[in-house]
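Collaborator request log, item 7. Partner lab (contact: R.S.) asked for a structural prediction of NAD(P)-binding Rossmann-fold containing protein to inform their binding assays.
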Amino acid sequence: MSQYGFHTTGLEIVNDFSGNVKGRTFLITGPSEGGIGAQTAISLAHGAPSMILLLGRSLTKIQPTIDEIHTINPSITTKFIPIELSSLKKVRTAAQSILSDTSIPKIDVVINNAAIMISPYELSIDGYELQLATNHLSHFLLTNLIMPKILAAGPGATIVNVGSLAHVLGDINWESTDFNKGRTYDAWSAYAQAKTANALFTVALRSKLVKRGVQSWTLNPGGIKTNLQKFMTPELLAEGVERYSGPGSERPPLKSVAEGCATTLRAALDASLVERNGSCYLSDCQVIEVGQNLKGYAMDRQAAERLWRMSEEMVGERFEY
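Returned to partner:
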């Protein structure tokens, strides 16, 4: 639908695809107040889903989102599930709580939204570079562990991995994902690596689950002023803009959170979307191809399989479909 673009809001998408919201179960990571994850959940509430699973670090940060959902529609079941994305052990605990909860028979849509951005060098509890661990490895593990409930939803189940335009700033640092134990660490390159990993994870999921009728999409939500930018200094911002657009360039225009969640929601709800020239990547609510602010290395099938195997080694578990 070509009418969708930069200024499309999440509510517009939900209204247009309300039939793919009503009565379904959605899982969203990182729905803290004020972020696009929260706005994604709040927008979905207007379409009367059966259940929204909200995964975050603390209930205090998620409760305003829950309250807003219930203000819109008190009949929606909401479940807060604590998760710490820098700990594989805690990801497993969250996944097990979902699997063992008989009131959650299936999950129709998974939206892997949570992220950290351009953080100082740090290792996760498990010893991996923190941006890669939080943004990719945690979602890789979570999604695979709860796969039985995704598959229980049958054909039409969808997995959405929220990426970023920042992937254009760098591929996976295959030889050293922790940047030589931090000696060659660069915050933008580490963020780019994690966002490229989101895209490659999506490519791998598509190839492995297409025969089961499960869709997978990744996307650039656009620039949105949220708590994601808490590490953004004027110097880092200038560096990022220069590396993307060249010296003297201005920052691209920002979206509101209502606009920022729209591309996520189209990926999650529009069953008519089709892969285009090997691309499963959306920007401004449209599927785009390699070359349109999308790097070929982010859609490479061999790289996607390589990342899958590497991720399995890092989480210590194999997943076959």
